């Protein structure tokens, strides 16, 4: 079985693949102080009975401190297992049409690979994580760039920190867009505000990808916070929560031959 490991700024997501089937996935909190030994122990505990069935590993990390420990863990605990860490120089087949390709995060790279695998059209990938990334992909699978916005959780945290009369609230839809109390006002602004932000960015990117609407453009949502916005977005066409894990699987297949 192939183990895919996506280390993000907020969470580490694990996926276990049997061929093309995702048979299990797990999520844990990212801690930049985590050691290789702690990481290995946690991964093994989450995999449970599948821990000894891992025959390959594909991983990425957008957190430099954890990337270092991830490499140590792979070399120490999975020395005999074929593995890749997605980074510059790893074959993905994705052309990076940006000013500095080395700046493109590995998560954006494998998301591009997975989106093009799923759709033969141009795509926009909206990744709801620590930041909200809106990336553009050509119909040929080229990474064209995108836009970053502050993520939902860090925006809520910042608002609660800087506004004395406001606080963190449960992120659920309020009774109406017009909030009748402080909690509902916050919920409305967060939920519908971020949906509007995403829709605005997506519409502008789609106009550049397909002038005049002549070519279809798929809009995919992924990331742990995507379900908060899905029901209110007017532009998202597909929800693919396993998009990054799929991209890691495809990257492994391109680099490790059976």
Automatic annotation (TrEMBL):
InterPro entries in alphabetical order: ATPase_NBD, Type_III_PanK
* Main localization (coarse): cytoplasm
Q: Which residues participate in K(+) binding?
A: 127
Gene3D superfamilies given in the database record: 3.30.420.40
Q: Keyword Cytoplasm on this protein? A: yes
Query: What does the record note about the cofactor?
Result: A monovalent cation. Ammonium or potassium.
Question: Could you tell me what reaction this enzyme catalyses?
Answer: (R)-pantothenate + ATP = (R)-4'-phosphopantothenate + ADP + H(+)
Where in or outside the cell is it found? Answer: Cytoplasm
In its UniProt entry, what is this protein called? Type III pantothenate kinase
